[in-house]
Write a structure and sequence with these properties.
Structural class: mainly beta
Shape: rod-shaped
Number of strands: 39
Low-confidence stretches: 22-27
Helix content: under 10%
Oligomer: single chain
Mean pLDDT: 87
């Protein structure tokens, strides 16, 4: 009736026990101790077939450490024994079954210690902290469980994974088919140099046995999986399986965008060059965008059209690694006037006369074709903004057409203004009705 005289039992066998004189402990037996040796790490829980008056029974589970000290794991109402499951190191475990104070219990009782030895793919307690995390490998499924808790606190399980290179990964959480959602929560974490955790993904168990998180692109490095319980105490005997599915893939890590031309003008069209690195990246597809479509537009193939003078940034972003992109800053210049030809119907004009001058602008795609008209001597002739010339006095004058842009191009035409001359009348001839002329 003590841990020193405990009955040695075997796992997974149904045993029967009983008491006598339980109301008065000094008159008889009131508690029973059982001892079981675990040959290797494993999980245990106790099954107790229900019988009448089982509410009078209680139980305590103990674990013996490597130096012989006994630690209480948990106290239970006897009818709740199955709901408590522990993953323990190999060694000795004790089970105490006793009668509640002030109660009589003369019937027998039955129980079975259910033990499942761990494999290489089983959780090893105590991994309650990041520093004691189980080191696991990607693409292998590991079995764990959340102990109901020491001192009524829930267990936390940490797993550590080292990824050798960049690749794609997704979290996988499996539980037996249940009727409840969110019994477990699994988090994929990465810690910085200040030991601050970044949550990369969070996955809850569902009624479906297997649940996957979204695929993530992960760089080489150290990652952790943290599993906690979100369900109630009654589910604490349920195991879970956790796995990080991972595949190495040659991912894009650099994009360079270049131009086939050194300068661009409005109206220009071209196809930008894109270099995706490394050369053996599996998916080199990129998406194109511009930060100012009023200046430059770009299609899905890197073809650009220059709309107006200004600056725009063209971006090529990896479709497989969306955090990787390349940029090209493109400046569109104005198309300046290169030549102005001034046309006039007659270069000689009498005083008081008017005429209109015209200007032909080259090149035809110049952005600004407006003209500023001027005259070399406004006392001889004036010219309006519309190119209408008015002769004021005789002389020679130059009519100028200046480009309004920054090119400084000027076109000219020379105009001669003559004074109007009077005509001297020498004779007048009159013709009569009979056809005879008189002077």
């Amino acid at each position: 009736s003590s841990d020193l005289t405990a009955t040695v039992i075997q796992a997974n066998i149904l045993y029967t026990g009983g008491f006598s004189g339980s109301r008065y402990p000094h008159r008889g037996d009131y508690d029973d101790y059982y001892k079981i040796n675990l040959p290797q790490n494993g999980s245990i829980y106790v099954e107790a077939p229900l019988k009448n008056d089982y509410y009078k029974l209680k139980a305590v589970l103990y674990e013996e450490d490597t130096v012989g000290n006994v630690k209480e794991l948990q106290k239970y109402e006897y009818s709740d024994l199955k709901s408590a499951k522990f993953r323990l190191h190999k060694g000795t475990v004790y089970l105490k079954i006793f009668v509640a104070d002030g109660e009589d219990y003369y019937d027998d009782y039955q129980f079975k210690v259910v033990y499942n030895p761990d494999t290489e793919l089983s959780e090893v307690e105590y991994n309650n902290e990041k520093e004691t995390a189980n080191i696991i490998q990607p693409n292998l499924s590991y079995t764990g469980n959340i102990n109901y808790g020491y001192n009524n606190e829930y267990d936390v399980d940490f797993y550590k994974i080292n990824l050798p290179t960049i690749g794609k990964a997704k979290l996988r959480l499996q539980v037996p088919r249940q009727t409840k959602n969110e019994l477990f929560k699994a988090e994929l974490l990465q810690y910085d140099s200040q030991d601050k955790a970044t949550v990369i993904d969070t996955l809850y168990s569902t009624e479906n046995p297997v649940n996957y998180g979204p695929e993530k692109v992960l760089k080489a490095g150290e990652y952790y999986i943290k599993v906690t319980r979100t369900g109630g105490k009654e589910e604490s005997f349920v195991d879970y399986n956790i796995q990080l599915e991972y595949k190495t893939e040659v991912l894009v890590d650099k994009i360079e965008v270049s131009s086939p031309k050194t300068e661009y003008f409005t109206g220009d069209e071209a196809k930008l060059n894109v270099t995706v690195l490394p050369e053996n990246a599996e998916n080199k597809d990129v998406s194109w965008s511009t930060n100012d479509e009023k200046v430059v537009t770009v299609d899905g193939y890197g073809n650009i059209t220059c709309k107006k003078a200004g600056t725009a940034i063209i971006t090529a972003r990896s479709k497989s690694s969306t955090n990787v992109y390349g940029e090209y800053k493109l400046t569109v210049k104005e198309v300046l006037v290169e030549q102005i030809d001034v046309n006039i119907n007659n270069t000689v004009l009498g005083v008081g006369g008017k005429t209109k001058v015209m200007a032909d602008i080259y090149p035809a795609n110049a952005d600004n074709k407006s003209i500023i008209w001027d005259t070399s001597d406004s006392s001889i002739a004036t010219v309006s903004d519309q190119g209408v010339v008015k002769a004021l006095k005789s002389g020679k004058v130059t009519i100028q057409a200046m480009a309004s842009d920054t090119s400084g191009i000027i076109g000219t035409v020379e105009l001669t203004i003559k004074k109007n001359e009077s005509v001297k009348l020498k004779s007048i001839t009159v013709t009569e009705k009979n056809g005879k002329n008189k002077e």
